[in-house]
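Severity: low
Component: inverse-folding endpoint
Summary: output formatting inconsistent between runs
Steps to reproduce: submit the following structure tokens with default settings.
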């Protein structure tokens, strides 16, 4: 019976990297810590780097950081301009995150560049790395135009 339950959970949660990503960003917006942590792989070496922050290793450190971030509710973030590199057992998504930030002048848009790495696990697709860096105000326009320079 437990085996059936885990198969059902895997089927209902984690069919594709895109589904995990959608769940991750929905959890961020709603401040749902349990839903967010369900997106992560059950591995010791999972990692999260918040913009300007240190590398956090393991579920406990990641959970604690998001508990702090969710102290005042969810994070108004919208992923866009997603670029995907998918293979049989891993996927890498480069994402422009648009975040609404409340300032003394009202709401402003902030931009974050994120890389989300997914692995196919026994539980289905799961997040193993979320690395976010501060973006630039013109990031959205640059991504819409596409990068014309190869290095």
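Observed output (run 2 of 3):
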């Amino acid at each position: 019976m437990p085996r059936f339950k885990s198969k059902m959970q895997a089927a209902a949660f984690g069919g594709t990297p895109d589904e995990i990503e959608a769940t991750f960003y929905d959890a961020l917006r709603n401040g749902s810590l349990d839903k967010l942590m369900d997106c992560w792989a059950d591995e010791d070496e999972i990692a999260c780097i918040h913009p300007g922050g240190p590398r956090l290793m393991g579920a406990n450190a990641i959970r604690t950081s998001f508990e702090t971030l969710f102290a005042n509710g969810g994070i108004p973030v919208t992923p866009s301009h997603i670029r995907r590199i998918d293979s049989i057992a891993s996927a890498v998504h480069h994402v422009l995150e648009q975040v609404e930030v409340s300032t003394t002048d009202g709401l402003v848009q902030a931009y974050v560049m994120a890389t989300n790495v997914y692995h196919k696990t026994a539980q289905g697709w799961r997040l193993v790395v979320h690395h976010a860096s501060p973006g630039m105000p013109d990031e959205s326009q640059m991504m819409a135009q596409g990068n014309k320079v190869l290095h």
